[in-house]
Design goal:
The protein has helices at residues 44-51, 73-79, 95-105, 111-123, 136-148, 166-181, 193-196, 217-224, 236-243, 268-275, 290-300; strands at 4-16, 19-29, 33-37, 59-64, 67-68, 80-83, 154-158, 185-189, 202-207, 210-215, 226-233, 248-253, 258-264, 280-287. It contains 11 helices and 14 strands. The protein is an alpha/beta fold. The chain has 2 domains: 4-215, Rossmann fold; 223-300, 2-Layer Sandwich (Alpha-Beta Plaits), CATH 3.30.70. The protein has a 6-stranded mixed sheet, with helices on both faces. The structure holds adenosine-5'-triphosphate. Residues 15, 19-20, 38, 40-46, 85 line the site of adenosine-5'-triphosphate (ATP). The site of adenosine-5'-triphosphate has 12 residues, from β2 and α1. Residues 6-233 form the ABC transporter domain.
């Protein structure tokens, strides 16, 4: 049986006025990539900070690979790769010096240097630059190297792609996939659905400090099998017929005679048949994604 690497049990940090994290329960298995989403202030960073042992929970507890995150905080830090939500580097001269310092601190073996160099190349970092003067994206890249360069079994990544350009986001996605193939366990938060979708096995939606919705593998697969058809009809009769059909109507526009239908792959044939019975002006098709799934929750959060 695959073991749980991260176990969160009734974890609570109450900052008052409904702010913080409340009664969080979660188990993340070895080799799993787990995503945390939520609007600003939902409690993502607070969760990471408790898991890193930076802040003490008011209630409940959490274990990483069997170690209590508060009582064994120093042990955990040695083998968890962590990217903080807000990066503040110490005043070292260059990125290179900083990364070397990190390697020394972690007592990493010589071969790890090769890994660091690979990461530096992949992420296109100029390590000679003064770390304090690096752009936001560059600092983020250095933080990613720190998290991914070690043999850490667990990666805690709090908004890891903040400030990265789209090309670098793709590089990041590949780093996560590589880490997963090495059986690393990853918990990451993000506002970017396009990086969660290809990487995460499960995703939790955090709302006012509570897990409001959990998208498991089955739901994720099901979502991927759905498409939204936006169909513009020629006449009122066709419009009314489609609107009253048995397909799931996800939107409509009376004036423009547009009907949006969310269709499972296996309904495609039936829809094509139905479209043969009405006068269609234009059809566009969009694959359903996490942004569609969470759209309503994001608006009402
Ligand atoms: N030290 C603190 N003292 C008081 N309130 C705090 C403290 N830290 C966080 N909070 C509050 O707790 C809530 C959760 O904050 P948190 O930083 O965890 O949110 P987040 O989901 O990471 O948000 P973002 O997406 O903006 O990074 C917010 O309302 C925040 O203002």
């Amino acid at each position: 049986m695959v073991k749980n690497m991260i176990v969160i049990d009734n974890l609570t940090k109450d900052y008052g006025s409904g702010r913080g994290v409340f009664n969080m329960d979660l188990q993340i298995k070895q080799g799993e990539v787990f995503g945390l989403v939520g609007v600003n202030g939902a409690g993502k960073t607070t969760t990471f900070r408790m898991l890193m042992g930076f802040i003490k929970a008011n209630n409940g507890n959490a274990q990483i690979d069997g170690f209590d995150v508060w009582k064994n905080a120093s042990t955990i830090k040695n083998y968890v790769g962590y990217v903080p939500g807000e990066i503040a580097f110490p005043d070292t001269r260059s990125g290179q010096t900083f990364l070397k310092l990190q390697l020394d601190l972690l007592h990493q073996k010589a071969h790890e240097n090769q890994k660091v160099n690979d990461l530096i190349q992949k992420l296109k970092i100029d390590t000679t630059a003064d770390i304090k003067r690096m752009s936001k994206g560059m600092k983020q890249k250095v933080a990613l190297v720190c998290a991914f360069m070690t043999d850490a079994k667990i990666l805690l990544l709090d908004e890891p792609t903040t400030g990265l350009d789209p090309v670098m986001r793709d590089v990041f996605i590949n780093l996560v996939k590589d880490a997963k193939s090495q059986q690393k366990t990853i918990l990451m938060s993000s506002h970017m659905f396009n990086e969660l979708e290809p990487t995460c096995d499960r995703i939790a939606f955090l709302k006012r400090g509570k897990i409001f919705d959990l998208l498991d593998q089955k739901k994720m697969d099901n979502l991927r099998l759905h498409q939204e058809f936006k169909i513009e009809l020629e006449d009122e009769k066709s419009y009314q017929r489609l609107l009253k059909s048995n397909f799931k109507v996800s939107g409509y526009d009376n004036n423009k005679k547009i009907v949006k239908l969310t269709i499972h792959e296996k309904e495609d044939r039936n829809l094509i048949q139905e479209l043969g019975m009405v006068n269609v002006k234009e059809v566009s098709i969009k694959r359903m994604g996490l942004d569609d799934y969470f759209a309503e929750e994001l608006v009402t959060a």
